[in-house]
Design brief:
Elements (H helix, E strand, L loop, with lengths): L1 E7 L8 H4 L2 E8 L6 E11 L1 H7 L9 E2 L3 E9 L11 E4 L9 H4 L7 H9 L9 E3 L2 E5 L9 E5 L3 E3 L6 H21 L7 E5 L3 H12 L4 E6 L2 H9 L4 E4 L5 H8 L4 E6 L4 H9 L1 E9 L13 H6 L3 E4 L7 H13 L9 E5 L4 H9 L5 E5 L1
């Protein structure tokens, strides 16, 4: 079938994207789903910094590629050997398919699926196939999803069935921002009721973490960012305190306000500077968790003696250490009860034709979460 899609032709075009047009709106061919795959009509797809980092070249991927990895839609067709789904089901798409057989999957850590990661890096589906083409040119899938398109063929292991009562525009946010931000709090860091926490980097994932910390019973939730607008948004979402990361004494101010630092600090800005700040504001015996994705060359130094003498823990979190089929229904149940008001993260609804302008807003920090509504 022929579909309309946003195609990344090459990485690294200059800003503003409204002028350089890194994403081309084009008609491409989508082959039918193969064994273990499904055809999904995309209802909504979110613009995420992970997409932006491919556009600007920080996370190299093969091109041409149909971008988009945070989405929700409706199942239209099943390939052979697909069970548990049927046409008409509403699904959230997950950007790491889990094979269910590799060592991480067998250990209950599907976010680290080895075949899934390999397929994502090479722009293929979990099956090793590519279902997108343009003329005689084979095209690449983004994170096994390629959601900036009217339809997508994905592995059935990239889809989680959801309740039809959840609006699909909101459900799309759960596929990355919520799964990552809330999961980092409850799965990776293991935040318990009464603990104190700080979130460095208040984009869509960071603000999801603010919501998740409240839902998990944190006694104090501190927001830290360079943007006063985002700090105000964090307070609107329930942060008890906010600090501007640009202040020379930011770390000292947080440590003083919390009598030595927080139990759990999170870094979602994707920068070594932000990670260093998160580490500095973590108390003795505390946990510093990062889900930020800086350029591959970025690194930060840990004082070795400090790590040992203060029994610090530093953790990485990918997709919130999620088991999506377990976690998504739980998070959506919290949303249904008003405990996880993720609809407040949605700042813009745009069309596919406005996608380059949307990435300008994201790059300039003028949006939290934008949804392409189909």
């Amino acid at each position: 079938m022929k579909i309309r899609a946003a195609v990344l032709e090459e990485m690294g075009r200059p800003t503003p994207y409204a002028e350089s047009r890194p994403l081309t709106l084009d008609t491409v061919e989508l082959a039918p789903p193969g064994a273990g795959e499904i055809l999904v009509r995309i209802a909504a797809a979110g613009l995420c910094h992970s997409d932006l980092s491919v556009i600007n070249g920080e996370r190299p991927r093969p091109t041409p590629m149909v971008l988009g990895h945070e989405a929700a839609g409706i199942v239209e067709e099943l390939g052979e050997d697909v069970t548990g789904l049927k046409p008409g089901d509403h699904v959230v798409l997950v950007f790491v398919p889990s094979c269910g057989q590799c060592l991480p999957c067998s250990e209950g850590r599907p976010a680290l699926c080895e075949p899934g990661a390999a397929a994502n890096t090479t722009g293929m589906l979990l099956s090793g196939a590519r279902r997108l083409s343009r003329g005689n040119q084979e095209m690449h899938h983004h994170m096994g999803v390629s959601a900036f398109a009217e339809y997508a063929v994905v592995s059935a292991r990239s889809a989680v069935k959801i309740d039809r009562d959840v609006p699909l525009e909101i459900a799309a946010l759960f596929g990355c921002a919520v799964l990552t931000g809330v999961g980092a709090v409850v799965n990776t860091a293991g935040l318990r009721p009464g603990m104190t926490t700080a979130v460095v980097g208040l984009g869509g994932v960071g603000l999801s973490s603010v919501l998740g910390a409240q839902a998990a019973g944190a006694a104090r939730v501190i927001g830290v960012d360079l943007s006063d607008t985002k700090l105000a948004k964090a307070r609107e979402l329930g942060a008890t305190d906010t600090f501007n990361a640009g202040a020379a004494d930011c770390a000292e101010a947080v440590r003083e306000a919390t009598r030595g630092g927080v139990d759990c600090a999170f870094e979602f800005a994707g920068s070594a500077t932000a990670m260093e700040l998160a580490y500095r504001i973590t108390r003795r015996g505390g946990v510093t968790t990062t889900a930020g994705l800086p350029p591959p060359s970025a690194s930060f130094a840990i004082p070795h003696v400090n790590l040992v003498a203060e029994e610090r823990t530093v953790k990485g979190s990918y997709i919130g250490t999620a088991v999506p089929r377990r976690d998504l229904p739980r998070y959506m149940a919290l949303y249904a009860r008003g405990r996880l008001p993720v609809e407040k993260l949605l700042t813009h609804r745009i069309t596919l034709d406005e996608i380059n302008e949307g990435f300008d807003r994201l790059n300039e920090g003028k949006a939290i979460r934008q949804i392409v509504a189909f």
